[in-house]
Specification:
This protein is α/β, with parallel strands linked by helices. The chain is 47% helix and 10% strand. The protein contains nine helices and five strands. Helix 2 (48-62) crosses helix 3 (75-87) and helix 2 (48-62) packs across helix 4.
Length: 227
Protein backbone atom coordinates (compact mmCIF):
# COMPACT_ATOMS: atom_id res chain seq x y z
CA UNK A 1 0.00 0.00 0.00
CA UNK A 2 1.33 3.40 -0.93
CA UNK A 3 0.40 6.30 1.30
CA UNK A 4 0.68 9.36 -0.92
CA UNK A 5 1.13 12.50 1.18
CA UNK A 6 2.61 14.79 -1.46
CA UNK A 7 0.18 14.21 -4.27
CA UNK A 8 -0.70 16.82 -6.89
CA UNK A 9 -4.42 16.07 -7.01
CA UNK A 10 -4.97 18.27 -10.07
CA UNK A 11 -2.88 15.75 -12.02
CA UNK A 12 -5.72 13.26 -11.40
CA UNK A 13 -9.15 13.32 -12.96
CA UNK A 14 -11.00 12.01 -9.90
CA UNK A 15 -10.65 11.38 -6.18
CA UNK A 16 -12.31 8.37 -4.57
CA UNK A 17 -13.41 9.02 -0.98
CA UNK A 18 -14.31 6.36 1.54
CA UNK A 19 -17.37 7.34 3.58
CA UNK A 20 -17.33 6.11 7.19
CA UNK A 21 -14.40 7.48 9.14
CA UNK A 22 -13.26 9.60 6.19
CA UNK A 23 -15.96 12.14 5.40
CA UNK A 24 -16.82 12.28 9.08
CA UNK A 25 -15.11 11.32 12.34
CA UNK A 26 -16.39 7.87 13.21
CA UNK A 27 -15.36 7.50 16.86
CA UNK A 28 -17.39 10.43 18.26
CA UNK A 29 -20.39 9.34 16.18
CA UNK A 30 -20.16 5.82 17.59
CA UNK A 31 -19.92 7.17 21.12
CA UNK A 32 -23.01 9.29 20.52
CA UNK A 33 -24.91 6.30 19.14
CA UNK A 34 -23.70 4.10 22.00
CA UNK A 35 -25.25 6.55 24.46
CA UNK A 36 -28.54 6.43 22.56
CA UNK A 37 -28.43 2.64 22.59
CA UNK A 38 -27.71 2.52 26.31
CA UNK A 39 -30.58 4.84 27.17
CA UNK A 40 -32.97 2.96 24.87
CA UNK A 41 -32.19 -0.50 26.23
CA UNK A 42 -32.18 0.64 29.84
CA UNK A 43 -35.77 1.68 29.18
CA UNK A 44 -36.51 -1.53 27.22
CA UNK A 45 -34.51 -4.31 28.93
CA UNK A 46 -36.58 -7.08 27.33
CA UNK A 47 -35.22 -6.04 23.92
CA UNK A 48 -31.62 -6.76 24.89
CA UNK A 49 -31.32 -9.37 22.12
CA UNK A 50 -31.44 -6.47 19.67
CA UNK A 51 -28.24 -5.14 21.21
CA UNK A 52 -26.61 -8.53 20.74
CA UNK A 53 -27.77 -8.56 17.14
CA UNK A 54 -26.07 -5.23 16.41
CA UNK A 55 -22.85 -6.55 17.95
CA UNK A 56 -22.93 -9.74 15.86
CA UNK A 57 -23.81 -7.86 12.69
CA UNK A 58 -20.89 -5.44 13.05
CA UNK A 59 -18.48 -8.30 13.77
CA UNK A 60 -19.72 -10.24 10.75
CA UNK A 61 -19.19 -7.18 8.53
CA UNK A 62 -15.73 -6.53 9.92
CA UNK A 63 -14.61 -10.12 9.36
CA UNK A 64 -16.35 -10.72 6.04
CA UNK A 65 -14.06 -12.23 3.43
CA UNK A 66 -14.43 -13.08 -0.20
CA UNK A 67 -17.15 -12.72 -2.76
CA UNK A 68 -20.66 -14.04 -2.39
CA UNK A 69 -21.03 -17.00 -4.70
CA UNK A 70 -24.71 -17.82 -4.09
CA UNK A 71 -26.65 -16.55 -7.09
CA UNK A 72 -29.92 -16.22 -5.20
CA UNK A 73 -28.70 -14.19 -2.21
CA UNK A 74 -26.90 -10.89 -1.83
CA UNK A 75 -24.01 -10.34 0.55
CA UNK A 76 -26.27 -8.05 2.58
CA UNK A 77 -28.95 -10.72 2.97
CA UNK A 78 -26.45 -13.37 4.03
CA UNK A 79 -25.05 -11.05 6.69
CA UNK A 80 -28.51 -10.34 8.10
CA UNK A 81 -29.25 -14.06 8.25
CA UNK A 82 -25.97 -14.89 10.01
CA UNK A 83 -26.38 -12.13 12.61
CA UNK A 84 -30.03 -13.07 13.17
CA UNK A 85 -29.07 -16.70 13.73
CA UNK A 86 -26.52 -15.77 16.38
CA UNK A 87 -28.96 -13.45 18.17
CA UNK A 88 -31.95 -15.77 17.89
CA UNK A 89 -34.07 -13.38 15.84
CA UNK A 90 -35.78 -13.64 12.42
CA UNK A 91 -33.76 -12.26 9.51
CA UNK A 92 -36.48 -9.71 8.68
CA UNK A 93 -36.35 -8.40 12.25
CA UNK A 94 -32.56 -8.24 12.06
CA UNK A 95 -32.76 -6.10 8.94
CA UNK A 96 -35.23 -3.71 10.57
CA UNK A 97 -33.08 -3.29 13.69
CA UNK A 98 -29.85 -2.77 11.75
CA UNK A 99 -31.44 -0.26 9.40
CA UNK A 100 -32.83 1.72 12.29
CA UNK A 101 -29.73 1.87 14.48
CA UNK A 102 -26.93 1.80 11.92
CA UNK A 103 -28.43 3.48 8.87
CA UNK A 104 -31.33 5.74 9.78
CA UNK A 105 -30.79 7.22 13.25
CA UNK A 106 -27.13 8.23 12.63
CA UNK A 107 -28.33 10.46 9.77
CA UNK A 108 -29.87 12.82 12.33
CA UNK A 109 -26.48 13.70 13.85
CA UNK A 110 -24.00 12.88 11.09
CA UNK A 111 -23.26 16.45 10.03
CA UNK A 112 -22.10 17.28 13.57
CA UNK A 113 -19.08 15.05 13.01
CA UNK A 114 -18.28 16.04 9.43
CA UNK A 115 -14.62 16.60 8.60
CA UNK A 116 -14.74 20.24 7.55
CA UNK A 117 -11.39 20.08 5.75
CA UNK A 118 -12.64 17.24 3.59
CA UNK A 119 -15.90 19.14 3.00
CA UNK A 120 -13.91 22.16 1.82
CA UNK A 121 -11.87 19.89 -0.46
CA UNK A 122 -15.11 18.68 -2.07
CA UNK A 123 -15.88 22.27 -3.07
CA UNK A 124 -12.41 22.97 -4.43
CA UNK A 125 -12.34 19.76 -6.45
CA UNK A 126 -15.67 20.69 -8.03
CA UNK A 127 -14.31 24.12 -8.99
CA UNK A 128 -11.33 22.46 -10.67
CA UNK A 129 -13.43 19.95 -12.57
CA UNK A 130 -12.07 16.95 -10.66
CA UNK A 131 -14.66 14.24 -10.08
CA UNK A 132 -15.63 13.39 -6.51
CA UNK A 133 -16.41 9.70 -6.13
CA UNK A 134 -17.70 8.17 -2.90
CA UNK A 135 -17.15 4.44 -2.37
CA UNK A 136 -18.59 3.05 0.84
CA UNK A 137 -19.08 -0.39 2.35
CA UNK A 138 -22.53 0.83 3.48
CA UNK A 139 -25.23 2.64 1.45
CA UNK A 140 -24.05 6.24 1.12
CA UNK A 141 -26.71 8.23 -0.76
CA UNK A 142 -28.59 9.37 2.35
CA UNK A 143 -25.35 9.95 4.25
CA UNK A 144 -24.07 12.29 1.54
CA UNK A 145 -27.28 14.30 1.84
CA UNK A 146 -27.06 14.31 5.65
CA UNK A 147 -23.46 15.57 5.42
CA UNK A 148 -24.61 18.33 3.03
CA UNK A 149 -22.11 17.25 0.40
CA UNK A 150 -22.39 16.56 -3.31
CA UNK A 151 -20.68 13.71 -5.15
CA UNK A 152 -20.41 13.00 -8.85
CA UNK A 153 -20.59 9.24 -8.33
CA UNK A 154 -21.64 7.09 -5.38
CA UNK A 155 -20.76 3.41 -5.17
CA UNK A 156 -21.55 0.92 -2.41
CA UNK A 157 -20.12 -2.51 -1.68
CA UNK A 158 -23.71 -3.76 -1.49
CA UNK A 159 -24.41 -2.73 -5.11
CA UNK A 160 -25.36 -5.83 -7.09
CA UNK A 161 -22.44 -5.48 -9.49
CA UNK A 162 -19.94 -5.25 -6.59
CA UNK A 163 -21.47 -7.40 -3.81
CA UNK A 164 -18.16 -7.58 -1.94
CA UNK A 165 -16.54 -5.61 0.88
CA UNK A 166 -13.16 -3.91 0.91
CA UNK A 167 -10.31 -4.87 0.83
CA UNK A 168 -11.51 -6.79 -2.22
CA UNK A 169 -10.47 -4.45 -5.09
CA UNK A 170 -13.54 -5.44 -7.12
CA UNK A 171 -15.38 -2.25 -6.17
CA UNK A 172 -12.48 -0.02 -7.20
CA UNK A 173 -12.21 -1.85 -10.51
CA UNK A 174 -15.94 -1.39 -11.08
CA UNK A 175 -15.44 2.35 -10.47
CA UNK A 176 -12.67 2.40 -13.08
CA UNK A 177 -14.91 0.58 -15.54
CA UNK A 178 -17.96 2.79 -14.94
CA UNK A 179 -16.03 6.07 -15.14
CA UNK A 180 -13.62 5.03 -17.87
CA UNK A 181 -10.69 6.23 -15.77
CA UNK A 182 -7.34 4.52 -15.35
CA UNK A 183 -5.51 3.88 -12.08
CA UNK A 184 -3.11 6.73 -12.87
CA UNK A 185 -6.04 9.15 -13.19
CA UNK A 186 -7.43 8.26 -9.77
CA UNK A 187 -6.46 8.98 -6.18
CA UNK A 188 -8.14 7.46 -3.12
CA UNK A 189 -8.62 8.84 0.39
CA UNK A 190 -9.72 6.53 3.21
CA UNK A 191 -9.24 5.81 6.89
CA UNK A 192 -8.31 2.12 6.93
CA UNK A 193 -5.03 0.81 5.58
CA UNK A 194 -6.26 -2.77 5.81
CA UNK A 195 -9.40 -2.03 3.81
CA UNK A 196 -9.24 1.20 1.79
CA UNK A 197 -5.47 1.09 1.40
CA UNK A 198 -5.30 -2.52 0.29
CA UNK A 199 -8.25 -2.18 -2.11
CA UNK A 200 -6.56 0.83 -3.72
CA UNK A 201 -3.13 -0.79 -3.81
CA UNK A 202 -4.43 -4.00 -5.37
CA UNK A 203 -6.10 -1.90 -8.08
CA UNK A 204 -2.89 0.09 -8.66
CA UNK A 205 -4.22 3.36 -7.24
CA UNK A 206 -2.30 5.70 -4.93
CA UNK A 207 -4.02 6.23 -1.58
CA UNK A 208 -3.87 8.46 1.47
CA UNK A 209 -4.91 6.89 4.77
CA UNK A 210 -6.20 9.52 7.17
CA UNK A 211 -5.63 9.50 10.89
CA UNK A 212 -8.74 9.38 13.12
CA UNK A 213 -7.37 12.44 14.96
CA UNK A 214 -8.18 15.93 13.60
CA UNK A 215 -4.77 17.43 14.42
CA UNK A 216 -2.99 14.71 12.45
CA UNK A 217 -5.38 14.96 9.53
CA UNK A 218 -4.67 18.66 9.26
CA UNK A 219 -1.02 17.93 8.53
CA UNK A 220 -1.84 15.07 6.17
CA UNK A 221 -4.31 17.06 4.09
CA UNK A 222 -1.92 19.99 3.77
CA UNK A 223 0.38 17.66 1.86
CA UNK A 224 -2.32 16.77 -0.65
CA UNK A 225 -1.77 19.62 -3.09
CA UNK A 226 -4.73 20.79 -5.12
CA UNK A 227 -3.18 23.74 -6.98
Amino acid sequence: MKKEEGTQVTLRRAVIFDMDGTLYYQLPLRLHMALWLLLHYLAHPLAVRELALLYYYRKIRENWKGNVVAADKSMERLQYEQAAGKAGLPAEEAERIVRRWMRELPLKILVKYRDERIAAMFGRLKDKGILRIVYSDYPADEKIKALKLEADYIFCSEDSEINSLKPDPKGVRIIMKETGLTAEELFMIGDSGKKDGKAASDAGIDCLILSPFPWKRKTQLRKVREV
